[in-house]
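Quick one:
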Amino acid sequence: MLGSPIAHSLSPTLHGAAYEALGLIGWSYGRVECDEAGLPGFVDGLGPEWVGLSLTMPLKRVVMTVADDVSPLATAVGAANTLVLRDGASRDGRRVENTDVHGLVAALREKGARRPERAVILGAGGTAQAALAAVRELGNDAPTVLVRDPGRAGDLRAAADRLGVRPTVVGGLPETPLPAADLVISTLPGSAADALVGTRWEPGTVVLDVVYAPWPTPFAAAALAAGCRVVSGLVVLLHQAVAQVELMTGREGPVDAMRDALDAAVRARQG
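Output:
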């Protein structure tokens, strides 16, 4: 797992549990502090024993420049979180993928989200672009996207065009009230969504908050208290890692073993 900062990442727990469950002796997965400037050199220095990298912020866009083979989904979203290596440093053996979309869709389906008629996405960053693709996969191609400044949503609009999605972009977060919805995805960082705790939720709405530490966030707790079906970003983390394991090992990801390891790690961090 590469990114900056990276010390907090739970991905080594997930991938390590998968390797153990699959009997992949000798496989290892760790954390590397790496910024955008350092990524090309790091990748060029990898040997043939490397099978893949996971990428988090701020590397989800720059990783697309270090490989010639970029999946159609990663291209459409405009961001990727996985680099699959077939021949170490050889550029021809690198493929860039996006498993964030799979993680979002799988997490939402666990809570019963099927074909939302009124979908709302909060934020305009790279995760919001993945959320556009996830909402499209669930059957809604016209979500409402709430942002702070529509003038800074150019990347999101470009991703929407590539995905064939027709969002309504509304500015004014966090002061703008949330419209009625049966699916809400918050991609806002940190405590940015906390100002929305006074939202009048419709019971049964599926609400996903990508922030998972500490959990529940005030935003998620308010939705849960109103009878919503709330999804933690930890479930997204789990399912995107399952897809990464499958890409890197060629084996089916052991969801139950990975979920158990993640739950144990979170309990340990909470004391």
